[in-house]
Amino acid sequence: MAKANLTVAQKQYDLTKAGAWSYDIANQERQQNALQKSYMASSALLSKYTLRAPRDGVVLSINPTPGSFVSPQGSYDSYTQGMLPVLVLGSSQASLNVRCYVDEILVHRLPAPDKMKAQLSIRGSGAKLPLNYVRMQPFVSPKIELSDQRTERVDVRVLPIIFRIGNPGNTKLYPGELVDVFIGE
Questions:
Q1: Is the dihedral of CA 155, 159, 160, 165 positive or negative?
Q2: Hey, CA dihedral for 32, 37, 42, 43, is it positive or negative?
Q3: CA nearest to 179, candidates 114, 59, 108, 96
Q4: Structural contact between residues 141 and 157, judged by C-beta atoms closer than 8 angstroms
Q5: What are the per-10-residue average pLDDT scores of the chain (185 residues)?
Q6: Which helix (H) or strand (E) covers residue 133, if one does?
Q7: Interatomic CA distance for residues 125 and 147, integer angstroms
Q8: What's the pLDDT score for residue 39?
Q9: What pLDDT, on a 0 to 100 scale, did the predictor assign at position 162?
């Protein structure tokens, strides 16, 4: 038995001393190439199903439910019977913008932008917060925000003005919340 073990050890030593076969090297190279291509295919498939945001932000809402059909136009909403975006992305909550719609009848009473002072009041609470003027969109358009239907017939035309609210303190504000705004000098 010792003589057989010595023969096996000698043959393994001779194989190690001789080096690897060129067939073994070629086989390992082909296996490495196949694994590399499999990795690239899996990465491409994963990137196809991965959503990437165009910038840093906060996810405000995810509209489809698990199992819903999602198309390039978005996901179908049975309540509004329209297509909604899959994700709604917003900026960080450090400051919020308030979009104010001023009736065209009251536009002539607006003060100059440098003298404009505005105050926000939250419905259902006594909180009143100051607003900073950002900009005015100088185009009076029909107000379709009543039901968000383009075919809605309204006789109200409005001028959009955008204000910014800084740190609201202890008051909780959320994007999309409906607030009242008082504009004066």
A1: negative
A2: positive
A3: 96
A4: yes
A5: 80 77 80 89 89 81 83 82 84 79 88 88 83 88 64 75 81 81 87
A6: strand 128-136
A7: 25
A8: 93
A9: 92
